[in-house]
Amino acid sequence: xxxxxxxxxxxxxxxxxxxxxxxxxxxxxxxxxxxxxxxxxxxxxxxxxxxxxxxxxxxxxxxxxxxxxxxxxxxxxxxxxxx
Length: 83
Fold this sequence. Notes:
This protein is mainly beta. The chain has one domain (2-62). It contains one helix and two strands. It has one helix spanning 20-25; strands at 32-37, 58-62. Strands 1-2 form a two-stranded antiparallel sheet. The radius of gyration is 13 Å and the shape is globular.
């Protein structure tokens, strides 16, 4: 039970497919998501490598050099950034 509630960075993987539709539109939007808790709104419906969560997501994004996230807004969630 406890092993399914602990998320360590060394056990996570970068998922470049989560937001691939954006990179398909424009390569400058290529990025990867590394999920720890929940799956978020990135189009991923399940991930057995995350701590289960209903209304919370914690993930990090990897943006390759010269890439960026597309302009967007959220009216139902908050987003926090750190670099």
